[in-house]
Design brief:
259 residues; seven-stranded parallel β-sheet; binds 2-amino-2-deoxy-6-O-phosphono-alpha-D-glucopyranose; three-stranded antiparallel β-sheet; alpha/beta; single chain
C-alpha cells in the first residue's frame, strides 16, 4: 500500500488523475467509478486534462460501485444520474458503457447477482476509485460487511443516511436500501485508489490503513489487496501514526515506480 499525503483536496484530485492517466496509458480497458464528494476533485482534473491536454477515455467501460434502491428513474440523486452530471458528460466516456446496478429492478437480489456477473465478464476493473465513509464504509459496505462479499442488497446505517441527507434535503428522503458491489467484488480490481479529504475522515482513514483488518472497518480490507494507493489531504491524514514514513517514501520514490 502506498499512502500519498498532499496539502489540499485539489492536490488529491491531481494525484488520482495521474494514477488514472497512467493506467489508461498502460492500456486500461475498465474503470471503476465512485460517487460522493471525495472523488470530485479527481473528476474535475480529469475533465480539465480531457479539454486542455487531449486525455481520452473513449472506448473504456466503467462500472459504478453502488446505487440507491427505489429512487424513480431520473431522480437527480440516483448515482447513475450523479456520475453523468459530475463526470461522464465532461469527458469522452460513452454513457452507454457506464454501468451501475439498477435500483428500480423488480427482483433486486437477481439484479445484484446480474451486476456482479457483468463486472466479472467485462473485468477485471483496471483501476477502481474509492472514497471512504466516516464509519469506514467503502461503496455502501457498512460496518459488519463480509470482507469477501459480492454485490448484494444492503441496509444503510442511520449515520450514513444522516451523512447523505445533505444531498436530499431531508434524512427521511434518503433510501434505506442500496445495491452495492461487495468488498470481494471491489477487491477483484487490479488497482484500488482510495481518496479522502477533510478532518471528518481522519479517524476512519487511520482505522482503515493502520488498524486491524476487520469487518467493523470495511475499508481495512484494502490491507489485503496487492496494489493500493491511498491519497489523503493533510486534514484527513492527521491521525496516521506513520505519516512521516509515508511522506519520506513518497519523496524518495524511484523514478521507475509509478502508482
Ligand atoms: C457514500 C458512497 C461512497 C462514498 C462515501 C463517502 O455514501 N456510497 O462510495 O465513498 O459514502 O462519501 P463522501 O465522499 O461524500 O464523503
Amino acid at each position: 500500500m502506498e499512502v500519498v499525503i498532499v496539502a489540499t483536496p485539489a492536490d488529491t484530485g491531481r494525484v488520482v488523475a495521474d494514477a488514472v492517466q497512467q493506467a489508461v496509458a498502460a492500456g486500461a480497458r475498465v474503470l471503476g467509478l465512485a460517487t460522493g464528494s471525495s472523488p470530485l476533485a479527481a473528476y474535475r482534473e480529469l475533465a480539465r486534462r480531457h479539454r486542455k491536454e487531449g486525455l481520452s477515455l473513449a472506448g473504456l467501460d466503467a462500472f459504478l460501485l453502488d446505487e440507491y434502491v427505489g429512487l424513480p428513474a431520473g431522480h437527480p440523486q440516483s448515482y447513475a444520474r450523479v456520475i453523468r452530471a459530475e463526470f461522464v458528460d465532461s469527458v469522452d466516456l460513452d454513457p452507454a458503457r457506464v454501468q451501475g446496478p439498477d435500483g428500480t429492478a423488480g427482483d433486486l437480489l437477481a439484479e445484484a447477482r446480474r451486476y456482479d456477473a457483468a463486472i466479472r465478464a467485462a473485468g477485471p476493473v483496471d483501476l477502481q476509485i474509492l472514497g471512504i465513509g466516516g464509519n469506514g464504509h467503502v461503496g455502501f459496505n457498512e460496518p459488519g460487511s463480509s470482507l469477501t462479499s459480492r454485490t448484494r442488497v444492503k441496509t444503510l446505517t442511520e449515520a450514513t443516511r444522516r451523512d447523505n441527507a445533505r444531498f436530499f434535503g431531508d434524512v427521511s428522503d434518503v433510501p434505506r436500501h442500496v445495491i452495492t458491489q461487495g468488498l470481494g467484488t471491489i477487491g477483484d480490481a487490479r488497482h484500488l485508489v482510495l481518496t479522502a479529504s477533510g478532518a471528518h475522515k481522519a479517524t476512519a482513514l487511520a482505522a482503515a490503513i493502520e488498524g486491524p483488518v476487520s469487518a467493523s472497518c470495511p475499508a481495512s480490507v484494502l490491507q489485503l489487496h496487492p496494489h493500493v494507493t491511498v491519497v489523503a489531504d493533510e486534514a484527513a491524514a492527521t491521525r496516521l501514526r506513520s505519516a512521516g514514513h509515508y511522506r519520506y517514501a513518497f519523496a524518495h520514490k524511484l523514478s521507475q515506480q509509478g502508482y
